[in-house]
Amino acid sequence: MKSIILALLTTLLLTSCATVGKMSVLREDMTKSEVVSIIGNPDGFHRNGEYEFLLYTDLLISGWSVFSGLSWDRTDYTVILKNDLVIEYGPGKIIQRSQNVRPYILIQPQHSN
Q1: Structure pTM?
Q2: Among candidates 20, 6, 10, which has minimal Cα distance to 62?
Q3: CATH of the domain at 46
Q4: Is residue 113 situated within a structural domain?
Q5: Which of 13, 40, 56, 60 is the most exposed place for a label (fewest CB within 10 A)?
């Protein structure tokens, strides 16, 4: 029984790391189809004119710290595309600006210590 639980925990840990690891492969100027083939289908999306937003929600992130040990956290990732090409990506959510060259901005989540 203990070996089954250990195997499940190990699988969960490796799966969550792989998900976050896939996000690190993203680069500007990738196409939407390249993003989806690497990361998978988004949990949601929004389109506004030439802009499209791919939303990956509540992704599990694990980390190790000497001070706190193994920690689990969840975050949302957003990929902003313009004319089918990635222009910005990362953890956080999008907001619309009123008067700028780029009408949308990605807001990073605030983590408490």
Answers
A1: 0.65
A2: 20
A3: 3.30.1450.10
A4: no
A5: 40
